[in-house]
Amino acid sequence: MKTLEQVRASLKPYPVEVEFPDIRPWKTGNCGVDYVHSFDSGVPGPHVMIMALTHGNEVSGAIAVDAFLRSGLRPRQGRLSLGFGNVEAYHRFDPQDIDATRYLDEDMNRVWLPAKLDSEQQSLELRRARELRPFIDSVDLLLDIHSMHEESAPLMMCGARTKGLEFAATLGVPATVVVDAGHANGRRLRDYADFNDAASRKNALLVETGQHFSQRSRQVALDVAARFLITTQAVSEEDVAAFLSPREPGPQRFLQVTEPVVANSMDFNFVEDFRGLELIARAGTVIARDGDQEIVTPYDNCVLVQPSLRHLSPGVTVVRLAKVLDIPH
Ligand SMILES: [Zn+2]
């Protein structure tokens, strides 16, 4: 039986191309919650928030939030909040063990079920989520910035509701939008409470900017975060011009996640070095082997969303399968 350490050792390591910003100067926030800074314009408008570090080693969001805070960015209307999530895990990042600080006790992007937040359960991530919760309850429009284990084109995860898809389409970046209901093993911040209620005007997006430690991921985080603030009219374009990528966004395509592939064993291997967004033309194509079992694509033109073995364990989702949606523009 392979161990997770052996699995990780067999995978290609990615260089850490970016600097981890020192976020300790942002510890004392101005709204009663550490590492959250909130600015009210005094002009009516939505409460818009950018959240970084829901996963502790996903530095691109921290780079963007740190840059916005240092720039002194303020909203033109409504309220603008900038926050760092799992700061404990971030502070414990180890360049020799880059995958270890996604979280410390449990995945902070699986705890956002009210019943779990209200429960007696204890973990470092639950404690932080409970600190953040009253604040998150006041947010109308949220961008939660993540990055990926593998270098793949950036993705927007817009949730399962039409309002999320429409929000992603209005934003216009990144080029690939993934429509999905989240994960069976817990609830994401993006899917928390009213963000996932079709009847509510609140809305949330989760962006996966690219590989955790790549320069490209950093650029995508800054660009998408800046466009998010322009689209929500929290700021005007000139306020964030320095953070925008010069290239005009192209057309978007939308993928519908149909199912996860969940590993049954530590003897799970993809047949190729998949990195994400590969399109498998024919149904029945073998994409992985899990012990003696062959994993095949269930339909033609099946897209692989975020394949990775870096957190392999029986019961863990190692890739999600998606159909290309035909959405008229
Ligand atoms: Zn993440």
UniProtKB/TrEMBL annotation:
Keyword presence, Hydrolase: yes
Gene3D superfamilies: Zn peptidases
Keywords: Hydrolase, Metal-binding, Zinc
Domain Succinylglutamate desuccinylase/Aspartoacylase catalytic, chain residue ranges per copy: 44-223
This protein's name: Succinylglutamate desuccinylase/Aspartoacylase catalytic domain-containing protein
Gene Ontology CC entries for this record: cytosol
InterPro entries per record: AspA/AstE_fam, AstE_AspA_cat
Cofactor entry: Zn(2+)
A molecular function GO annotation: hydrolase activity, acting on ester bonds
The species this protein was found in: Pseudomonas batumici
Keyword Isomerase among record annotations: no
Family matches, as PANTHER family: ASPARTOACYLASE, SUCCINYLGLUTAMATE DESUCCINYLASE
